[in-house]
Amino acid sequence: MNILKPIAFTITLLTASFLTSLVPAQQKFVALSPVGSSVSPAVIELAAETFFSELSDEYFLHRYYSVVEENPAAAEKHNMFEFAVMDLNNDGRVELFVTNRKLSISANCATVVYKIEEDNSLVKLLETDGVFSVSAAAGAGGYKTIRTNRHESAAERSIAEFAFNAELDEYQQRARQTTYSSKQKR
Fold it and tell me: Are 112 and 100 contacting, i.e. CB atoms less than 8 angstroms apart?
């Protein structure tokens, strides 16, 4: 009888391991990298000018012009934004993330992802808001999945995932999940 317990335990363990291997592993998401020397200052300035020209958030523009009035020396647009990079398609060239987080009071800052062409021109791949992370492995079209974490209110947030659409040469939202804080679940 005592020999049956170890055999039953081993069978249960092997069955659980086999069934777990059938379930797809959840994708691992990683943080973006600092720009460093991987992007030239000219591309940073172009990205800042392009991003700024497309912003329509009046609150952000008011904050920007307030800073300019207070400190004209700090008015360079590339100083107003945060930049990060990630090689999204494993081609050896990084893609550039630009956000207005420095002038935003929430984590829901506007963010654009640009592909940097060989001539240093920019192609917009995604425009959204929220805090970003990127999948560790390539997904659709050879591009990594992008995830945002956005505050909808003080009590809830949503997580959206964006997959690359090779036909349109841009990212498109594929999933969104709203979660609630533990305080609201009571």
Answer: no
